[in-house]
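User: My notes are a mess, but here's the protein and zinc ion's SMILES. Can you give me a structure?
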Amino acid sequence: MTDFTLDEIRAYYACRVRDLGQTSAKMWRGKCPVHHGSGDNFAVDSTTGLAHCHSECGKGWDILGLEMELLGIEFPLAKDAVYALIGRPKQTYADRDIVATFDYTDEHGTLLYQVVRRYPKKFAQRRPDGHGGWIWNLESIDRVPFNLSAVLLAKNVIICEGEKDVLTLKRNGIVATCNSEGAGNWKSELARHFAGKGIVLIPDNDEPGRAHVLKVAASLHGIAATIKILELPSLKAKGDVTDWFAAGGSADQLRTLGKTAQVYTPGFAFVLAVPSEEDKWVYDPSAVVKEAGGLDRFWNLAAEEGIPTPYAQLTEDMSGGLRKGESYIIAGMRGSGKTSLMLQFVSKALMQGIGVLLFSLEMGQRDVLRRLISIRSKINLAQLRILQKQRISGTITTQDISLLIALERRLKSVTRAIDNMPLLVHQKPVVTPAYLVSETHRLNERHRIGLVCVDHMQLMSSDGNEKKEYEKFTAISRAIKGQVVRELNIPGLIVSQVSRSNSMDKRTELEITDCRGSGALEEDTAAVILLYHDGEDLKRARESGRLGSGPIKAWLKLGKNRFGQCPTYLELQHFKGFTMFDSGDERDFISETHFDTEALNRAEGRV
Ligand SMILES: [Zn+2]
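Assistant: No problem, the inputs look usable. Here's the predicted complex:
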């Protein structure tokens, strides 16, 4: 938890939650801004900034968590927003992910090292380098217990698994500690600090948590005066003492439980069963509502979260865009521009601050980045290439040279600002379903991934067991749906290349049955977006010579649409020079594009 000053806490709540009244020396109360409640159920501790809704939400937030909840944004953006609001300087990109820092000090309070918690949850350790900077390891550093100065003064100490829990207990007037680096990393050098003390160990509610407290207990056996292990009742899988307090536990109840806890002796056996992790997949009706964020949210169908598509109409047709935990297909023939279309989806997601992982099996990382920047800066790369060639050959006009310089300057300035583009392009040429799953999980540990894309599915390899093409696509589709988008709770967007088995088939309109492995796609995906050029307009374009640069009329057809009607058709114009599809709808970003067609024609020597 980031520490805010009293003034900062006041500034934040004055801006975000109206009409909070003071009910005691340190508590403010008012209407819950999250579920828009009518009673005074929203309580804020004005000294810590921690808020709790005692009504429908039934949960609490720190300031950054509340900002994420209120604005529906990810942690780094919430941190930026809060800092701007309370007047702190803007964070560097690397620091935006830091959720909290925990100081480990010696008995005099001098900083020895620090544990850094990042978003998403990931820990690192660092120590002062003596010059105002940090060394990011704890090599040859003796570990100390967290909160050491309080531990040394206390007769009784609770040992739990994480710093967050120690601080929860501290806020409730209880002295607690933990070791750095989490479960399994208790070092024997820590034991001496607990000589003669009464110790209560509270394990996190999972097997590693239990193994950890047994290791700590064994290390303190014969050193501490007494050792007890407290199994907190009715804790969910992986739950900790902070969860227990959040569910309504009090310091007095905890003290009572501590008195009756089992005394540790070698060969200690736990009484309660550890809940299965698989329980997270199983819901009863009240759990469904709770998971949705309360009754209001459960029934607020209009606000169903999804990443908007590049086209407002398509987003509406799909009832809210790309939803978490669902996979989507963009299907098109070779040359239909399906990669360009996919990049427009990616660009839209990036502009919302959503992290994107793109497995680009066809296009190189440079082309991906150039195309995204051209979409963002609204510049025609075909035009740029022609002008650059003319500059080399000395045939460029003075008018066009200033245009070229302006285009290059704009591209470079947008490229310099790409640190706000949370994109990862994965370039490994051979990708199997199992590899895609493990890589997405691995990268998700370090980066916030909010959308995973594959371009394209036919270039993926099989894990080796599937003989038929149909079986291969089924395996890919299952892996993406079952082990990526469901488990990470993000949407997946898969590009699929269509090829007609019958070359005599001259239809331009696509059907789902044209997709290879269509059975699996049909079952596993929430929507199939079919992209094709309009047959009539294609003929006219061929005759008039605009086939190369466009615009050519194209259709987006929703051939499957689990959350809306189908089929639906959206008419687009394919500007090939811009590698862009334009809907002409003023609600869409791309329609703001200033296509400099006059300069393009000049550059191509047509005028
Ligand atoms: Zn609430």
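Residues 32, 34-35, 37, 53, 55-57 surround zinc ion (CB under 6 Å).
User: Great, I'll file this with my notes.
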